[in-house]
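Working notes for the structural subgroup meeting. M.R. asked for a predicted model of this chain before we commit to crystallization trials. I am recording the input and output together here so anyone reviewing the notebook later can reproduce the run.

Input as submitted:
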Amino acid sequence: CSRAVSAWEIFDSVFTAECVKNYHLLVNRLLENGENSIEFTERLCRENPSLIVIMDEIGGGIIPLEKSERIWRETVGKAGCIIAENSEKVIRMICGIPHILKGQKQ
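Returned structure, recorded in token form:
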């Protein structure tokens, strides 16, 4: 490989996408590549404000033994908070039932 490619370049498609699912896994990939996923999330909110983000809530339950899993879990929570703060509408799905946390019902 003649040129190293950052994870930001690999994941640039999210900056123009309409919807991203499994954002929690994207955060993990960023962390694995040594990228700052919080800065990535903030940039994403600025550059693609109409993006629909789907992510699992991974912060519940037993705290993982592995440090890397704890960091991932904490970072996903922070990323979710940043996305929610910058969103007009936030919907939490539980067992297929939508719970509107932010924004108006339509």
